[in-house]
Amino acid sequence: MQPPLLALSDVSVQRGQRLALNRLSLSIEAGEHVAILGPNGCGKSTLIKTITRECYPLLRPETSFRILGQETWNIFDLRTHLGVVSNDLMAQCTRDITGRELVLSGFFGSIGIWPNHHVTEAMEETASRVMREVDGAHLADRWLDELSSGEARRLLIARALIHRPQTLLLDEPTTSLDLAGLHEIRGHLSALAQAGTGIVLVTHHLDDIIPEIDRVVLMKAGQVYREGLKQEILTAEALSDAFGATVQVLQRDGFYHAW
User: In angstroms, what CA-CA distances link 241 with 52, 133, 221, 236, 255?
Assistant: First the structure.
């Protein structure tokens, strides 16, 4: 049997003087569609940075952190299994590079193509294919600073797909998008999930949770507060407790909305 995508036990991560993750334990199966939900400051971003090896857990005998059964990874090898779309990457998309160069840079772990990068014909063909898959082929020759937020995120998804990863890890993928952009990105994520790509979606917006996601992990104060099936976790009571505000929940056509 394939090992879990993530197997975390008693993981703590300190950022400055604060424990951003506090003895967190979590397991996500390979190919599973999961949403990690919680208020600002609950540890979601730190969890992402720990998965992508930008942060590391405190060294304790009881701590275990495995990705696909391994505790240590060459970060370039990890990218072939786990594609990442994050706000940190979005913030770097400011130089004068084209959409095509952004997607190709997924082969090199960079943003844009640099003089030391050798782009092969096979890489060009792969980049063209994944851009077509996210309806982004027409953006190939556009400068990034000319693109809308939705168009740029579409290309970041294509960049993350360049190695055909088992799972996409998405950090707040709809931030700053208008209604058309929201609908577009959610449609792409649904299509990827239906095609067999695992989705790990990190958000604080219920509306981002596409119908294909069936498990929700609710975080609070650096820990897993509740987890389970979507219909069991996305309740007014659980969300009010986690977010510290009175919340009402509406479900329609597989989507959940809160106010």
Answer: 29, 40, 12, 9, 21
Distance CA 1, CA 31 (A): 13
Domain definitions of the chain by residue range: 1-73+198-259
Q: What 3-state DSSP class applies to 201?
A: strand
- Name 154's Cβ contacts closer than 8 Å, sequence gap at least 6: 134, 135, 136, 139, 184, 185, 188
The model's pLDDT over 29-85, given as tens digits with 9 standing for 90+, comes to 999 999 999 999 999 989 999 998 889 999 999 999 999 999 988 888 888 889 999
Question: According to CATH, what is the number of the domain 1-73+198-259?
Answer: 3.40.50.300
Q: For the whole model, what pTM was predicted?
A: 0.92
Q: Who contacts 17 (Cβ-Cβ below 8 Å, separation ≥6)?
A: none
Q: What is the DSSP letter of 38?
A: -
